[in-house]
Amino acid sequence: MEANATANPRPKKMHNNYEDEEERKHFQRIVAAFKYYKPHSLSRVKKSESYLLTLPTHHQKLLSKYRDHLQEVKRCIENNDHIIKLIIKDVAHIFENVHPAAAQADSTLNPRPVMVDQEKVQATIKQLVRDWSVEGTEERTACYQPIIEEILNQFPLDQCTPSNVYILVPGAGLGRLAFEIARRGYTCQGNEFSLFMLFASNFVLNKCREVNLYQVHPWVHQYMNNLKPEHQTQAVSFPDVSPSDLPGTAQFSMTAGDFLEVYTEDNHWDCVATCFFIDCANNVVQFIETIYKILKPGGVWINLGPLLYHFSDLPNEESIEPSYDAIREVILGFGFRLEKEETQVKTRYAQNINSMLQCEYNSVYFVCRKLHQHIDNVNHNHRNCLDSNGAQEQEN
Ligand SMILES: C[S@@+](CC[C@H](N)C(=O)[O-])C[C@H]1O[C@@H](n2cnc3c(N)ncnc32)[C@H](O)[C@@H]1O
Q1: Does the CB atom of residue 136 touch ligand 1 within 6 A?
Q2: Among the residues of the chain, which ranges form H helices?
Q3: FRET label pair with 268: which of 76, 85, 298, 310, CA 20 to 30 Å apart?
């Protein structure tokens, strides 16, 4: 399946298999998940409220501010729901070949919220902070800046026609990295298969015209590890930049669909940029193989992220979890030359900086090049990577 959201994007042309009954049902399930956000989230607050009411009166008295705080939490959920309504407002039209009626609520769908879907709605709200808020600046600097700088280094703006440089960002999330690349003049396409992300990125990229016009309360579902009540109810404005603020010549698009299915054309891209993506595969080797194939000879793959294998230990899912060392072997085995490599890159993902619980990744960052000549022998490839002093050896 494929979809485009373009530079001044009315996202266009999402043609694909949505005629397919299963896909249609999936689409409806995600719309339903967004719709169930409010009742589901409020029921969580009500649970605390109900318990509070059963406590001894003097306990309740001591907790009067906490009771007021729960009122505030409900107000925040209402506000989030307002944004969610905007996000799903026109999604029936997001894909070109879906009849709007097909996206109406299906009475055969089980109306009970699925827990895992609600977590994804909440994660989508947090992703707005990572990608499109001032509060996400530090996180983006750590994750996206090394990639952007390497692109500028590989394809200097004064030495090429940037619009002739084709850059793909698979697993684009809410699209900020791809947007930033396009903003610098390159032809950039983000690819994403999660409808949670696609609905939200469609809203930001195509509907948000004014800076910081909207607000969400991204941490309102985090009931634990709050130092102050306002850390749970904090409002975050978005978007921090106007997504329509792209040079007139910018070529920016988003495609919807599984990266492995959408990108089948060999030798097409000058650069593939992956951020927190390669661990989203059942078989990471298949991702690496696809990246290798679709890059032009001489093209570069820039990657940053951890190895939080997303399918690991999930029921009914297959997964392999090779270490970074093993992945390195695979990369070289396909015929990439490793040109830059860094470990222990401190990065965060949609992190609430006020929380008492912090999660930080020691990510890996690397830049590798598809050689003009494929060398089948893995041992040969070893000679083509950085030597122990970090110096590059010749291609042959
Ligand atoms: C951990 S998120 C990272 C998003 C973004 N790159 C960032 O750094 O914020 C990984 C994203 O890849 C998407 N994804 C995973 N597997 C995919 C696939 N096979 N094709 C397209 N997108 C995929 C997920 O839906 C998710 O949005």
Answers
A1: no
A2: 21-35, 37-54, 57-62, 64-88, 115-132, 137-143, 145-154, 176-183, 195-207, 229-233, 259-262, 284-294, 324-334, 378-383
A3: 310
Cis omega (within 30 of 0) on the bond before 247? no
Per-residue pLDDT tens over the stretch 154-172: 999 999 999 999 999 999 9
Task: Look at residue 116 and tell me if it is in a domain.
Answer: no
Position in ligand 1 atom list of the atom nearest CA 281: 16
Number of domains in the chain: 1
Host H or E run for residue 14: none
The DSSP code sequence of 316-353 is T-------HHHHHHHHHHHTEEEEEEEEEEEE-SS--T
Residue 326 Cα to ligand 1 middle (Å): 22
Rounded average pLDDT over 305-322: 96
What CATH number has the domain bearing residue 316? 3.40.50.150
Asked if 369 and 341 touch (Cβ cutoff 8 Å), the reply is no
For residue 371, the tally of other CB atoms under 10 A from its CB is 18
- Within its chain, how far is the Cα of 107 from the centroid? 31
Whether residue 40 is contained in a domain is answered as: no
Does the Cβ of 193 fall within 6 Å of ligand 1? yes
Structure-model confidence comparison of residues 384 and 90, the more confident one: 90
pLDDT at 249 (0 to 100):
84
* Predicted structure pTM score: 0.90
pLDDT over 70 for what percent of the chain? 85
Q: Is residue 199 lining ligand 1, measured as CB closer than 6 Å?
A: no
Cα(33) to centroid(ligand 1), Å? 19
Specify if 49 maps to a domain. Answer: no
